[in-house]
Design goal:
By secondary structure, this protein is an alpha+beta fold. It has helices at residues 20-29, 43-48, 85-90, 92-97, 99-106, 111-114, 119-124, 132-138, 237-245, 250-263, 274-300; strands spanning 13-15, 34-37, 56-59, 69-72, 76-80, 142-147, 150-155, 160-162, 165-166, 173-179, 187-194, 202-212, 220-227, 234-235. Helices cover 34% and strands 24% of the residues. The structure holds flavin-adenine dinucleotide.
């Protein structure tokens, strides 16, 4: 008889492959019973709670190219998949050029957890609540995947397929995320509503970026993405179209916030009701848009 309140960790083999090809081969050969892991903050909790029972745990965080942040004004930003949330949130180039990504990484859980939790783990988990997913969507990140056929890049928008489901195939690993060079004169914000500020998954997460764009009628392009309000993290494309087409001001921002709310299809769960989530999507989006618009307008003066 077990006295543990939860099932506890099941037994598994720990494997630390020497190279990406070895890791990929192993994961493909043992598809269904082997799992890659990095920080383990998602995976070990799910094993402890009895949701999954992998027989082989494949540690991949030490593999080449997995760790670190490289910024170049022409090439943009590359973040290794095993880079921790604290490393991202505190990195000077991320703070200076991709503040939205720094905010999103800094909003995950607690300081202690952010020392282990990685960007790749957050994205590969396929959770609709992943805080870095809306940032990756609005910054149009490209996910670098390594598999038996070599390397490929998947745009963030094509990666999330459903709760716990991603575009990764058997034997594939995420090795890095690439971001375009920052837009001149752009601004961005990540707003997260959780049950407590002391580290919790979001009830609603809203990422907003905006930048001057001579190709749109309004003179600006905005991108909006949401967490925790649909089966996948998603872009609010209709709202983005409103902001591209109409003269910018309070009325347009309010209409875009309304359209963003309409894009959300949340469920009731332990964190909040669907009705509350919808209302919070509108409120947070409006606040995010106002903040970004104020920065953009300020830069013009
Ligand atoms: C108390 C607590 C609070 C939390 N709060 C938040 C929060 O506020 N916001 C939030 O977004 N998340 C939160 N989380 C979830 C979790 O911490 C994050 O998602 C974290 O970023 C996961 O990273 P990891 O490296 O620990 O992933 P892991 O647990 O190592 O892996 C997560 C998933 O990704 C897969 N995986 C790992 N590495 C790779 C790879 N290289 N290639 C392919 N697949 C891979 C694993 O098989 C697994 O399915 C919380 C978790 C806990 C326990």
């Amino acid at each position: 008889m077990s006295y543990l309140p939860r099932p506890g960790l099941s037994e598994f083999d720990y494997v630390k492959p020497a190279s990406l090809p070895d890791a990929s081969r192993l994961l493909a050969e043992r598809a269904g019973e082997a799992r890659p892991f990095m920080g383990g903050t998602d995976l070990f909790v799910r094993i402890r709670d009895g949701f999954i029972r992998p027989q082989t745990m494949v540690d991949v965080k030490h593999l080449p190219g997995m760790r670190g942040i490289v910024f170049d004004e022409q090439a943009g930003l590359t973040v290794g998949a095993a880079t921790t949330m604290n490393e991202i949130a505190q990195h000077p180039a991320v703070q200076a050029h991709y503040p939205l990504l720094a905010e999103a990484a800094g909003s995950v859980a607690t300081y202690q957890l952010r020392n282990r939790a990685t960007l790749g783990g957050n994205l590969c988990n396929g959770s609709p609540a992943a805080d870095t997913a809306p940032a990756a969507l609005v910054l149009e990140g490209r996910f670098v995947l390594y598999g038996l056929a070599g390397e490929r890049e998947v745009p963030a928008v094509d990666f999330f397929l459903g709760p716990g489901k991603t575009a990764m195939q058997a034997g594939e690993l995420m090795t890095a995320v690439r971001f375009q060079p920052p837009r001149t004169g752009g601004a961005g914000k990540y707003l997260k509503l959780g049950r407590s500020k002391a580290g919790d998954l979001s009830i609603v997460g809203v990422a907003v970026v905006g930048f001057p764009d001579g190709a749109t009628s309004s003179g600006y392009t905005f991108r909006i993405a949401l967490a925790s309000v649909a089966p996948v993290p998603l872009r609010a494309l209709e709202a983005e179209e409103v902001l591209a087409a109409r003269p910018l001001g309070e009325e347009t921002l309010a209409l875009a916030a309304e359209k963003t709310m309409e894009a959300a299809t949340p469920i009731d769960d332990v964190r909040a009701s669907a009705v509350y989530r919808k209302a919070m999507v509108r409120a947070l989006t409006l606040r995010g848009l106002q903040g970004v618009w104020a920065e953009l307008a300020g830069q013009e003066e």
